[in-house]
Write a structure and sequence with these properties.
single chain, about 90 residues, alpha+beta, two-stranded antiparallel ribbon
Length: about 90
């Protein structure tokens, strides 16, 4: 199967979006699962003791990244399919 120029552009853009998603995931720390809270250790200023507390913070995980990449791959494949040449040789 040969690709025409529109299909090649769609393929390259799809791959670039997926690579960007993986880079963003790695920038968030490469976590496996998405987190909305993290456990942080704080120190009590009055008594000097330490305690743990949950802090609201979004950390992108591999689960959302793979889902997003799958959707991008599916949409790209559909666009590539529908942009094919209709010539029957």
């Amino acid at each position: 199967m040969k690709f025409n120029s529109k299909q090649k552009k769609t393929f390259v853009i799809g791959i670039m979006i997926i690579i960007a998603a993986v880079i963003v995931w790695a920038g968030f720390g490469g976590e496996i699962f998405t987190k909305t809270q993290v456990l942080v250790e704080k120190q009590d200023e009055l008594f000097g003791t330490t305690y743990k507390e949950w802090k609201d913070q979004f950390i992108l995980g591999l689960d959302y990244t793979v889902g997003f990449s799958g959707i991008v791959a599916l949409v790209s494949a559909l666009i590539i399919f529908f942009k094919r040449d209709k010539n029957i040789s």
